[in-house]
Fold each of these.
Amino acid sequence: MKLQKILSRFLKLHPKEIDLSLDRIKVLCEKLGNPQDQIKAISVVGTNGKHSTINAIFSILKEAKIKCNVYTSPHIQRINERFVFNNQELNDEKLANLFEEVEKINDNQEITFFEILSACYFYKAAKYPNNINLIEAGLFHRFDATNILKNNLASIVCSISKDHLDWLPKGQQTIEKIVFEKTSSLLNSNIIISKQNSIETTDLIKKTIKKNSSKKLYFNEDFSFSDGENDFFYYEDKFGGLKLPTPSILGQFQLENISTAIATVRLLDFNIKDDDIKNGLTKIKSLGRLQEIKSGKLKTLVKNNQLIIDGSHNEDGARVLNEYLQTLDCRKHVILGMMANKNHEKYISHFKDISSLTTIDIPNQPNAINGEELKEKLKNIQNVKYKRNIEQAVKSIPLKENDLIIITGSLYLAGEMLNLN
């Protein structure tokens, strides 16, 4: 209750949810003693795959007995997910104490919700100067609150695609502009570029960071992976090849993110052993990202059928999700809820051979599109229907043996469903 009251106060510190600028957080961090200058960080930017890449690095480093701090956003179920120190989420009491301390120093000055959360993270992270910080960039990166570091160990560029276009000026809602916003201000250290969804995007990244003096590693040029057999895959870079176990998270596309994670930890010479990588891959956790639900209230609703929750919400996310679904020999039923500012038609256009589509409302999210309105936008899809909530949606699906239900379209929906479960 105390934590929620503080968060409510944070939300009132600025009239806008997002106001892209570095001025306010720099002022607050200066009052805090510039903690961001006292940490060792790996920055992770991009559109898709940031969370999975961070979790893969985190799992490998933990296996190597290396302490980490982790800052990600948004959270799926609890705000605590964003604040990991010494390999552990802060509990409610410690998080509330941290928030109150920074709130007092901020002294009611105007600052956005994400900015003050980022300041809180940096302030706490500085207490652990020897830990490795894994920091996920927020919107676009150039004017994002995480982009106040003067130096870092490395910058990782995950897959970049079109998303959050409503925050770009009219006439500049292009992949060129997005690449510029995400990569033009990367620090001079090491840059690891993950697999991109097109050669054009890779070329745009190369052009944008051409004058950056960092050491650069590109997927398929400096590191790569290939499919193996019998639950193994193969990774290769200048340090040699590795035969690795299939990771603990679903989806062929995750091998792209994992390969980027491996390239990063090997480049930075953390004295990681091959066994640390092998064992770490079997312990990766990724909440709300292609997560199979094996127990709980929602699982009870679908009985013996498979249930997956995935927070993908843009075109590229839909594309890789559908690639995974195409590998499954079963009937697929999609339950969809999305935020209002997404390209709903393009998102669903990537899904092939689905047996049914049910739109629902996302509870507790005023910026979500109403499920009935979403159904009308997707009326050209065969077998589309609307149900008010998840229970009605599941009960309306004529499930047969071996059928799959996937709930997707929004990280906020994923969080609500996991809380309900």
Amino acid sequence: MQVALVTGSSELDFVADVDVPLVTALEARGVTVTQPRWDDPDVAWESFDAAVVRTTWDYPQRRDEFVAWAAAAGERTRLWNPAGVLRWNTHKSYLLELEERGAPVVPTAWLGQGDRIRLDELLQARGWTEAIVKPAVGAGASGLQRIRAGDPAGQAHLEAQLAAGDVLVQPYLASVETRGELSVVVVDGEVSHAVRKVPEGGEFRIHEEFGGRNLVEEPDADTVALARWIVESTGHDLLLARVDLLEDEVGQPQLIELEATEPDLFLRSVPEAGERIADAVVARLRPSDGPGTRPVEG
């Protein structure tokens, strides 16, 4: 079997570290693994039995091109997750759909590109004294800023973001400083593992480039059930998904992100999860291996 773990144009050196446990596990199962760039015009996607989108972390600057690539590649090979999922998940408006279906999404003010909004008026109307402003198409902490009512810099940041695209404004949940963000990885509908991302002291951003740490955590039964339900509520057949949760002021989990495009799976922290993901990939490619295996997508 030939499987592509699809990467981006600028992450090749980093990818070698991120996905080593998965590559090793797939190769142990007789799979030949290649890590092509999604935007490489010379890749023959039809030569792969499947292409698993993994670290295409350059897509936010080129979303339209990325979505078009996924549609074309999905016609030439099995693409996981499928092109329709990638189109849906690369704009954070998908959170509106999940909220309508009952998911506990962090309260959000949705602003369209070019909107003229007075940030202080928005915060006052919502009863928020602090908020997070971030782009609707983005990854990591790019474009994300914590703002406070009455701060002119916050208004300037909002206007700059609205000039570039759609924007989300959400209340600042102070629990991120003490409890961090819980990321629950779901593989073929089942919770595989979880990591709590905690920021460095005095910082609210949980990303490693800002000093954040990833702590392996065993999720409780309620969290497992919530993560599974959120994935099921998408209505999509997802090979890989990551459910990111913050706690509100009374300790209840709030969905901040469902990452179904190119989630960091934290395999450096939980290398044994590479075995579970490899099993899921092979099961989809070999649906006749036994009961409980998944049908191959067309």
Amino acid sequence: SQDNFLFNMSIKDNIKMGNPNATDAEVVAAAKAACCDEFICKLQHGYDTMAGDAGRNLSGGERQRITIARAILKKADVVILDEASAHADPENEVYIEEAIHELVKGKTLIVVAHRLSTIEDADKIVVIDSGNIVGEGTQNELLMSCSVYARMWQENKEALSEGKGGGACV
């Protein structure tokens, strides 16, 4: 979700919401896969640190990585991500992308993204314009065959070069 939500409980318990029967070792393994073990271990109480109401004791990128660790424990066959790195600063975005890479191994991934760089390596991209599918294919196929996607890709590149973070949505 764009609004990653943590409950006012320990970070460990927030992660375990993905699988309440997970062992502490499984929680740590999920946190490592989600690139959040290192910062969690630096917190005053480590995994027993309270996240605070809605996760207010953590940055947006840290909250996002914890929710990815939760999703890793869930072991779902299909993962839907809605603007997974939308609230992340550039440093956290790198960690989030690494975490997502771990999360989606062997799974079907559906992504809603404004930052087209998030999806450029997808096996299949579906372009929707005004509620209609106007293109499907790989990045290269769409750049050659779908004017809507080609325009969005160009706008995205220009926005990134201007430091605006991209604005096209697929």
Amino acid sequence: MNRTPADIKAVSLSLVGFAALWWIAAWLGDDPAVLPDPAEVWQIFLKETASGVLPHHFTATLLRVAAAFLLALGIGIVLGIAMGANARVNRWLSTWVVLLLNIPALVVIVLCYLWIGLNEVAAITAVALNKTAMVAVSLREGMHALDPKVRDMAQVFRMAPLTRLRYIILPQLWPYFAASVRNGLAIIWKIVLVVEFLGRSNGIGFQIHLYFQLFETGYVLAYALSFVAFMLLLEVTLISTIETRATRWRLGTAARKS
């Protein structure tokens, strides 16, 4: 998606405003041990990047986020479509979904570590379980919101199941899929940090735990903001593009009606 100059200007001004507020807060506090200014955190970031330590832990977190995200998205989409298409399946699985939605993420993480062990399988499983139910609910609501007229048209023309899925169901589910992608990435990486904080020996969360114990606020901010910056970059490039393409058919329909 080509971002307009107005979009770029808005994002730039927002970031400048954030940095200005941070600088003012650091100046008023006048205690670098509690809140260092942006320049000091930037220097820490450059030093940790040059040494290779930050890229190492960043990559570990990114791989966990990607694995948990793909697992949760894949299972959640299948469950959501099945629950939305079949009332009996929905009755059987809705209780499980509600249960997963209401169990605190911390409890799921601790139980996975106790049952599976302090390993990567437990870490990724814990994160995926916390997100799968959210994806399933979103896709189920998308199935319930399908246009009945389009569904009836597909039945009249006797479309094959795969053809109906490709040309009727999936285009209408794209906005719900895009919302699941955006919310999923935002939530999963935060849960991954908790997983690393509690039981891994690398990753952004592990480093935050280390520097929390040393009361090194600047290092905590440098590591945390490195991944925040990456997620912001992902938002303004990939996710925005997916969302625009997901809703393009609606814009075309509205234009034809007008």
